Amino acid sequence: MESSKLSFWKIFAITLLISNTVILSFVFFEKSTKADNKGPANFIIKELKFDEAQIESFNKLKFAHQDSVQALQITGRELRETYFQLLRNDTGDQVLANQILLQIANNQKEIEKITFSHFKSVKNICDSVQKEKFDSIILEVIHKMKDNRPKQNRPEPNR
To answer: What pTM did the predictor assign?
Structure first.
């Protein structure tokens, strides 16, 4: 009797160990797969099947684009903060508010122009087959860019 209880617990422990190992390997494999395919840049490289020279050119374009846009995003954030700080004053200066709002719009317009120009340059490093594929994926790339932005620390809205 004692021996059968011991055998049961040994089998049970081995089963748990194996099942935990299998589950952890699935979790690890899924995370590494997602990390490898994350982001619009990797999506572009994979979908357009860039060769090494194209990847190098693309990375240079990507870093230049990120540098240009990052400075404008900081400016945009500062402008929005200034705009909404006008709410502190009960009288509110509508002329100043409209001026800041126009600056916000112009700043965002510059971001869009830079991004458009960036993708024009990316398309220019493609061969004719890749250009057709580029045309079919560009909207998905834009959506991935939006989805890939770092999330700010915001509380969830109460619904």
So the answer is: 0.67
Q: From 2.60.40, 1.20.120, 1.10.1060, 3.30.1450, which CATH number describes the 40-147 domain?
A: 1.20.120
Burial of 57 (0-12, 13-18, 19+ CB in 10 A): middle
* pLDDT for position 148: 60
Model confidence over 124-158: pLDDT tens digits? 999 999 999 999 999 999 988 876 665 454 445 45
Ranges of each domain in the chain:
40-147
Residue type, 97: A
